[in-house]
Write a structure and sequence with these properties.
Length: 353
């Protein structure tokens, strides 16, 4: 097993410690920037030599940047497919990068500032934080982008802004996303109204795994649609206002649910925890839905244990590639479901509710 991947499966990401702002509703914040080097062909038309040159230039730049001095470079294409999937499950790489020759990712020890190289654009720089932390995420990302731009010189047009492979990213090249846990709205049947309101407000709605994924475990990801015609701060500010409205709406829905369901709600929460602690077979979808109920039970003080950090660890390490890497071999879907149940029981068995 690759040594870097081994380190990943032995520790949870720092941003999943459960200690960020508004973590009762907001799971995580992510901001990414798309950038391209000025004098090299964009990824869509770049040959192997051009891709190698991009990687060489970026590697030199990281060695002269204080924020990237401790990052580790991982040659994604050289990894075993299961090792690549671990990076995907950790939100460190995109699916597109997994099959690209000379694709790489730079990752720091805390997994807070990963950078993909030779994806759709030369550079995809990300900032990850637990809870609602758009301001700090942007501060770090902006500092990192400026350090790299001084060395690499990014492609920029005076009228259009930063130039990208896909026209929808031209301008700021920014995509800010906030992943929210919304069981109150889901259980009270109000989630569709929120999704329709988001679309009208120009906010994109996706599932737990981002673009192309369906909602699972009552997780919904909200992000800006546009990248052109406004500043990064304006896009981020609008998203933050929207998310605060979502937080308020979700909290009211939880209060309504508790008043309406009472003991029935507590029963649902305790049954969910009981299944997690005793089941012998567990699919990813069932796990996510049960964890959702337990998270809500912790927030509403129906439970004292397990800790949110335990739930986060279960959620990350029970994903297919993580499970198989920890077992040291490829597993069939049935074997994965059995191993997932075993892992969840071991992790949650000592927690007293």
């Amino acid at each position: 097993m690759n040594l870097f991947v081994r380190k990943l499966i032995e520790r949870p990401p720092f941003w999943l410690d459960g200690l960020g702002p508004e973590t009762d509703v907001v799971f995580a914040t992510r901001i990414r920037l798309a950038r391209n080097l000025r004098n090299l062909p964009f990824s869509s038309v770049a040959n192997v030599d051009a891709r190698r040159k991009v990687l060489e230039e970026v590697d030199k730049a990281t060695k002269h940047s204080g924020l990237f001095s401790s990052h580790e470079m991982v040659d994604v294409f050289s990894l075993h497919p299961l090792e690549r999937d671990v990076l995907l499950e950790r939100h460190l790489v995109s699916r597109e990068l997994l099959s690209v020759p000379l694709g790489a990712v730079y990752v720091d020890d805390q997994e807070l500032l990963p950078m993909m190289v030779n994806e759709e654009d030369h550079i995809r720089l990300q900032s990850l934080r637990g809870g609602l932390d758009l301001v700090e995420s942007w501060r770090i990302l902006k500092q990192a982008e400026r350090e790299l731009d001084r060395i690499l010189k990014f492609a920029f047009h005076s009228s259009y802004g930063y130039l990208t492979t896909c026209p929808t990213n031209v301008g700021t090249g920014l995509r800010a996303s906030v992943l929210c846990h919304l069981p109150g709205l889901a259980y009270t049947g109000k989630i569709q109204n929120l999704i329709e309101a988001a679309n009208q407000a120009g906010i994109a709605v996706r599932g737990f795994f981002g673009e192309g994924s369906a909602p699972i475990g009552n997780f919904f990801q909200f992000s800006n649609r546009g990248t052109l015609g406004r500043s990064e701060e304006e896009f981020i500010g609008d998203l933050e206002i929207w998310v605060h409205q979502v937080i308020e709406t979700e909290r009211k829905a939880r209060e309504e649910l508790m008043k309406k369901e009472g003991v029935g709600f507590e029963d649902k929460v305790h049954r969910a925890l009981g299944i997690l602690r005793s089941a012998r077979v567990m699919t990813t979808e069932e796990m996510m839905n049960l964890l959702s109920a337990v998270r809500l039970g912790l927030d509403q003080e129906c439970l004292r244990k397990p800790d949110v950090s335990d739930l986060n660890r279960v959620q990350i390490w029970s994903q297919p590639a993580h499970l198989q890497q920890r077992c040291g071999r490829a597993l069939s879907p049935r074997e994965r479901d059995i191993e997932r149940a075993n892992f969840i029981r071991r992790t949650l068995s000592d927690s007293v509710s």
